[in-house]
Amino acid sequence: MQTSTVFLVLITLSFVSFIAGRKRSHNVAAHEGGMHLLHSLPKHYGYMASLWAALPALLLLVLWMGFEPRMIHNMVVADLPASVQQLQHSELGLYYNQIVSYALGSSNADLLDEVQVAAASQYLELKSTSGGMKALLVSLVAVMGGLLAVQRIAPALRARNHVEGIFKWILFACSFIAVLITLGIVLSVLFEALRFFQTIPLTDFLFGLQWSPQMAIRADQVAASGSFGFVPLLVGTLLISMVAMVIAVPVGLMSAIYLSEYASRRFRAFTKPVLEILAGVPTVVYGFFAALTVAPFIRNLGESVGLTVASESALAAGIVMGIMIIPFVMSLSDDIINAVPDTMREASLGMGATMNETIRKVLIPAALPGIVGGILLAVSRAIGETMIVVMAAGLSAKLTANPLEAVTTITVQIVTLLVGDQEFDSPKTLAAFALGLVLFFVTLLLNVVALYVVRKYREQYE
Amino acid sequence: MSNQPSYKNTEVIQASLKKRYAREKRFQWYGRLAVLIGFTFLFILLFDIVSKGYPAFTQQYIQVSVNFDADRLGVDSSSGEEELYRADYLGIVKNSLREMFPEVSGRKDKRKLYRLVSIGAEYQLRDYAIDNPEVIGKRQDIWLLAHSEAGAYLKGQVTRETPESDRKLKDVQMQWLDSLVQQGRTESRFNTLFFSTGDSREPELAGIKAALYGSFFTLLVTFLLAFPIGVFAAVYLEEFAPRNRLTDLIEININNLAAVPSIVFGLLGLAVFINFFELPRSAPLVGGIVLSLMTLPTIIITSRAAIQSVSPSIRQAALGVGASPLQTVFHHVLPVAMPGILTGSIIGMAQALGESAPLLMIGMVAFIMDVPGGVTDPSTVLPVQIFLWADSPERGFMEKTSAAIMVLMGFLIIMNALAIYLRKRFELK
Questions:
Q1: Which residue of A22, A53, A127, B361 sits 20 to 30 Å from the alpha carbon of A31, by its own alpha carbon?
Q2: Is B168 within a domain?
Q3: Is residue A257 a contact partner of residue A359, using CB atoms and an 8 Å limit?
């Protein structure tokens, strides 16, 4: 049975339990001699019954959905002939996928052998049995839970406190999801990366100077064995980020200083939101702008003065990324400059310093840790930015510091390795997860340091 | 210095004043320049998109006198809809074009002639014939959609100044088009096809409807997951969380998640939802889940700020008349904080609408012609459609890309305006 149907049944059962619980509380109260004897309002008894019906059943449903594919996979594979079972892990995976796609009707039988056709019908059978059992068990648990709760209803039962207790746990669970997400990211990326490091040694990855992830698919192919040196990607990423910072930091910082120290209130009220539009533009739009407008412009400009500029130069991607980050740097520096106490400004101005001397000799030194923290956050943004570089930076990994050449970045490689059809177990796809791991930890480190610096700085003036 | 008479100091200061004031002026100009640079970038970006994209909202049609020759179509006046559906309309398109330009001979030239109208022209005729079966065997003037290259010439985007070898539309085709213009057989119309079809290999037939529906379903899933979870988490952290290590851990995690690159969420989605839970690839369901994980920190952080700003007197009043802590929050604090929470959620949704990198990871980059009907159908979203079109070499797709960007930005502007409106109303209270 469809999961959505089971879900609807569950909602209905939960609602029925609510009605039953409320009705029963009325009956019990009337029997004992009046509504005033009930500890809680009738609806609280209803809520209790419906929560008892819904929550355990929902948990069961989610667990079932999580383990069903794996169980069916194991059962189907267990019935395959021994020769198939001895296949390599990835080949077995491919073999099994053919069975599933045939069973689901998305491919036809010509590609398969008889064993697979038989396995496909077994797969369908298992799937429908599992679906039926799932629907049955989930409904049973829901009905039992609801009945149990309705049975327990008595005037002395503290239904409201009970419901509120459950609710507080639900609230806690919702906030705990944040921890689970982080855990999920770390584990999923880490496990795949560890598998990658089983085939490619860690030192080759970290210190290798060559990145060409094309692996020979068959043993007799001439193609290179693939080299996974991470250094060119890192250099490319840093090069583009540096270009971005060269644009974003001066423009963002000076705008923030001007707007917070010089500009009139009206000018500020108009300018800030307009510049913040730049932060709301989707990155894919920046990518399009970089690839189709900025890159050709820079190439033509370079050619007119006799330079050879690659059509996917790091400069174009970097400039556009810098534009994207301007409002980010601006609003962070704005916050930080505003946090400097007015007494410091006034003291400096009172001594006869001009505004610009005050800013350069008092405000900026005082705000420096905060500004550095803000810049670190901006760098972490630039390193993790994907769409601009996917659309405007190159694909081939070149170890160069020349911004006029095409370089590639970590995020570009992740996308190119994972988009399109892939087998999940080849080092090529696993490499993407290794890159993801590096990306996650580099940005995490930058963020932790930056947030720490910014917080320390804020505390200093609180 | 100290033993010098003080008026000397004044002189020194007087002498340096001019320089200091000049520096002050200069510094102010640097500030103005920085703001101006920001404005210029914004202006160039918007101008570039709009100037490239606005032609895509019109489309060129060519009036062709079509001979619905029953023999050539292989049908007769008594044919049913089924037969009309299968008849050979490409033949009569070609035939009618040849009749309009009888001087054209040679296979190459004929092929160029056929390429004046869109490949979709035969389906246009098919639909027309099915709607008006009485036209079979007669001659009728019909406006057929122009091929994108011919359309570009009629719009003035392609001119004879480009060397013939550099353009797809050749001189002879331009002559035919010129003569059509002279006969008044060309027309420019509003491009309704752009909003009513899915993706296509032909620029003139491609539309954003499938991507819009995909975006809608994805955002629906995102909102249904991220909004309740985010608000509940914010309520817990603001109102109920004890001060302990676990709460600190949760808070640190939320702050860090807000800064994790979006592509990493895509990796999580690929490894967990697609490879472990075996949810369907390319489906709005998985896309929505991934985006909801991404927007969750935004919603939690803004909701917490909104809940924090509710005056404590409201809580105290509710508690004072005997409401339980949970009732206080759900009956009194949340309704007051709701505009702020909605503002944050809308901003989070706007982020999710513009996001594309994590969706590339989970396979939402397919070529989708059909409008998805639910959250498990293969689909794509608007930003990814923009990414796909931006990669296409045909010039016709460039204006489509810019036009799709304009539509996307339009939605973002609406969402942000709504958020600002809510915030303004909230501030008045």
A1: A53
A2: yes
A3: yes
Whether B240 and B293 share a structural domain:
yes
CB contact under 8 A, A386 and B365: no
User: Do residue B232 and residue A175 have CB atoms under 8 angstroms apart?
Assistant: yes
User: Which residue is associated with the tokens 């049908």?
Assistant: B75
Contact (CB<8Å) B233/A171: yes
Chain A contacts of B412, Cβ < 8 Å? Answer: 280, 282
- Shared domain check, B187 and B300: no
Instruction: Look at residue B1 and tell me if it is in a domain.
Output: no
End-to-end CA distance of chain A: 60
Q: Which residues constitute the domain of residue B32?
A: 6-54
- For residues B352 and B217, is the Cβ–Cβ distance under 8 A? no
Query: In chain A, which residues have pLDDT < 50?
Result: 216, 222-224
Q: Which residue has the tokens 């490894």?
A: B271
A364 residue type, one letter: I
Cα–Cα distance, A175 to B284 (Å, whole number)? 24
Hey, is the C-beta of A281 within 8 angstroms of any chain B C-beta? yes
Residues B264 and B155 in one domain: no
Final residue of a structural domain among B142, B169, B197: B197
B275 touches chain A (CB under 8 A): yes
Quickly name the fold that domain A227-460 has: MetI-like fold (1.10.3720)
What confidence score (pLDDT) does residue B1 get? Answer: 47
Please identify every stretch of chain B with a pLDDT value under 50, giving residue numbers as ranges.
1
**Predicted TM-score (pTM) of this structure:** 0.88
User: Is A281 close to B354, i.e. CB distance below 8 A?
Assistant: yes
B48 touches chain A (CB under 8 A): yes
Residues in A touching B271 (Cβ below 8 Å): 188-189, 191-192, 433
What is the total residue count of chain B? 429
Nearest CB among A289, A293, A380 relative to B259 is that of: A380
Task: Assess B206–A contact: CB distance below 8 Å, yes or no.
Answer: no
b/e burial code for range A92-115 (CB count within 10 A of at least 16 → b): beebbebbbebbeeeeeeeebeee
Task: Please state at what angle helix A314-339 crosses helix B6-53, rounded to 10 degrees.
Answer: 130
Q: Which amino acid belongs to residue A191?
A: F
Which of B28, B237, B383 faces A175 most closely, judged by CB atoms? B237
Task: Give counts: helices (H), strands (E), chain B.
Answer: 19, 3
- For A18, phi then psi, to 5°, come to -60, -50
CB contacts, 8 Å: B229 with chain A: 174, 177
Work out the number of other CB atoms within 10 angstroms of the CB of residue A357: 17
The H-or-E segment that residue B314 falls in is helix B312-320
Cβ neighbourhood burial of B202 (10 Å; 0-12, 13-18, 19+): middle
ipTM, interface predicted TM-score of the complex: 0.90
For residue A425, what pLDDT is reported?
64
pLDDT of residue B320: 95
Task: Please check whether residue B328 touches A, CB under 8 A.
Answer: no
Vertex B225: Cα angle to A3 and A420 (nearest 5):
75
Question: Number of CB pairs < 8 Å for A and B?
Answer: 254
Partner-chain contact A168 B357, CB within 8 Å: no
Q: Measured between beta carbons, which residues in chain B are less than 8 angstroms from residue A424?
A: 275
Dihedral (Cα; B228, B231, A449, A230), 10-degree rounding: 10
> Is A92:A85 a contact under the CB 8 Å cutoff?
yes
Contact A286, A321 (CB under 8 A): yes
* B224 interfacial to chain A (CB closer than 8 Å): no
Contact with chain A for residue B12, Cβ under 8 A? no
How many folded domains does chain B comprise?
A: 3
Q: Where are the domains of chain A?
A: 3-157, 227-460
Rounded to the nearest 10 degrees, what angle do helices A427-460 and A364-384 cross at?
160
Paired residues of A306 in beta bridges:
none
- Shortest CA distance from A442: residue in chain B: B260
